[in-house]
């Protein structure tokens, strides 16, 4: 085993949206596990947009610590135990990504047991979508569902989940014609609206003339505004992300103001709620069981964009923010 390993650190706090120069790839001694820790050789880790908030310093109400210049980035990772109390070779899920070797506490590792046919699928961002659609929006047979940010890590899963829960029509939004084609061709979306191509209001009215019953929003901004305008009486809107704020060059990732027509919310009896996994601790196990069954049956797909090699990791978050990923962005080591 080499005496050193690679890791990605925050070099400086970005001025606006992050660039690869805001991160640095460094060599460091391979850590030794302490008492109650395991040494894990990472194989894959997730690039998630919430890092924009953590490096921007606006972390109020965020259940993760801020990142300061010099800190190693972190996030969900899958790796193989090479030393410590757990069995060598055991695959585990933990939160010390962005490095070749990690030393999470044994209690912070989740041992993977084959619930999912592909271990990498444990990095799928489907739990929040599933929880929001089953606990808050409660998708019903025949519903028309609108998913904003449909080509993202959550959105690519949400449309498929909505269909499996009984939705009759699934509409998504994205900023790329190519992604729109993939959503419809590969993931079963019935229609898509293009951000920036024309009024989202007008496009929604054309593709969903009978209105929208459920909204799963990962973006906010004008897309959420338009969703309220198109929502039917009794529509259920659930929020699982705020990309409009996190991906704005004028913000630091900790706010996402949106204009909502409260008159329509009131007169149409529309409900709107934010989803947090900590409020629904039973969702994760239920989701994974159903996800595993759906994967084995070929009823659902886990699309992701691979980032091959740690040397490309410093550019992974900027590429994600620039919209160059379809589905999740995963660094493969």
From TrEMBL:
InterPro entries: ADH-like_C (IPR013149), ADH_N_2 (IPR041694), ER (IPR020843), GroES-like_sf (IPR011032), MDR_fam (IPR045010), NAD(P)-bd_dom_sf (IPR036291). The keyword Oxidoreductase applies. Keywords: Oxidoreductase. It comes from the Bacteria. Residues 18-331 form the Enoyl reductase (ER) domain. It holds the Pfam family ADH_zinc_N. This is NADP-dependent oxidoreductase.
